[in-house]
Write a structure and sequence with these properties.
Distance between the termini: 49 Å
Largest sheet: 8 strands, parallel, barrel
CATH topology: TIM Barrel
Bound molecules: 3-methyl-2-oxobutanoic acid, sodium ion
Structural class: alpha/beta
Oligomer: single chain
Strand content: 15-25%
Order of helices and strands: HEEEHEHHEHEHEHHEHEEHH
Mean pLDDT: 97
CATH architecture: Alpha-Beta Barrel
Number of domains: 1
Radius of gyration: 21 Å
Shape: globular
Helix content: 25-40%
Number of helices: 11
Length: 273
């Protein structure tokens, strides 16, 4: 049975005057059916992240990512999963103008993919939109701190919340989206002290990426943790070197074709004896 939004949100429980998550939530990105199949048994949530812009399409940032890309990959991931909740990122330009624009875009994503939730970037400024969607049947996964769609405004991908003023702003952002009804919030690229403060302050799960072990769960870009993508930030732990392994396998194949040692009779159709 597939994880639901209330069940996932409910993993963070009231305990007296604080909130605790006994077992941290496990999340990864997925963009394709086959990767979804492989990750699904291990994850509480699969995110069809707009990081597919860089990872799949070779784009310079997530800014050029389109609704068509998110819908096509979102549908593939839903088809390849049965256990994890699937959330799809709203691409830049599809939701910021108004709550009405966001609703139309999010409804399209849900209809075309079958996903149960959407994710969008932004804090206080997006809170009315988070409320508008939530009240109309669209669960919202929020994302504050380092918000990659704002790279042109932020000037880069450096960690956020180093100054007290910036940390206070990000805490306010997390509070605002939680109050507006988001079921969980990604904290990206923030200082540990801030992640800890936010995790204590909001009743919804905080999901960290470059945001310390203080969060209620963790997410990584799958290609990064598998060693499949070339540039990886400091907060990524490489659990394997799939790029190296693919390189070796393909080099062996190329060598065998060139030396005529592949294919052999095992891979060849001949009349039955
Ligand atoms: O696009 C993405 O992959 C993300 C996460 C890593 C949080 O937004
Ligand atoms: Na994203």
């Amino acid at each position: 049975k597939r994880m639901t939004v209330p069940a996932l949100k409910g993993r963070k429980k009231a305990d007296g005057d604080r909130f605790v998550t006994e077992q941290p939530l496990v999340m990864l990105t997925a963009y394709t059916m086959r990767n979804a199949q492989l990750l699904d048994p291990h994850c509480d949530l699969l995110l069809v992240g707009d990081s597919l812009g860089q990872v799949i399409y070779g784009l310079p940032s997530t800014v050029p990512v389109t609704m068509e890309m998110m819908c096509a990959h979102g549908a593939a991931v839903v088809r390849g999963s049965w256990h994890a909740l699937v959330a799809v990122d709203m691409p830049f330009g599809s939701y910021e103008a108004s709550p009405e624009q966001a609703f139309a875009s999010a409804a399209r994503v849900m209809k075309e993919t079958g996903c149960a939730a959407v994710k969008l970037e932004g804090g206080e400024a997006m809170a009315p939109t988070v409320r508008f969607l939530t009240e109309r049947g669209i669960p919202v996964f929020a994302h504050v701190g380092l918000t990659p769609q704002a790279v042109n405004a932020l000037g880069g991908y450096g960690a956020r919340g180093r100054s007290e003023a910036e940390a206070a702003k990000i805490l306010g952002d997390a509070r605002a989206v939680a109050d507006a009804g988001a079921f969980a919030v990604v904290l990206e690229g923030v200082m540990e002290s801030l992640a800890e403060e936010i995790t204590r302050a909001v009743p919804i799960p905080t999901i960290g990426i470059g945001a310390s072990p203080q969060c209620d769960g963790q997410i990584l870009v799958t290609e990064d943790m598998l060693g499949l993508f070339e540039r990886t930030p400091r907060f990524v732990k490489r659990y394997d070197d799939l790029a190296g392994r693919i390189g070796e396998a393909v080099a062996t194949y190329a060598d065998e074709v060139r030396t005529r040692s592949f294919p052999t009779s095992d891979q060849t159709y001949r009349p039955k004896a």
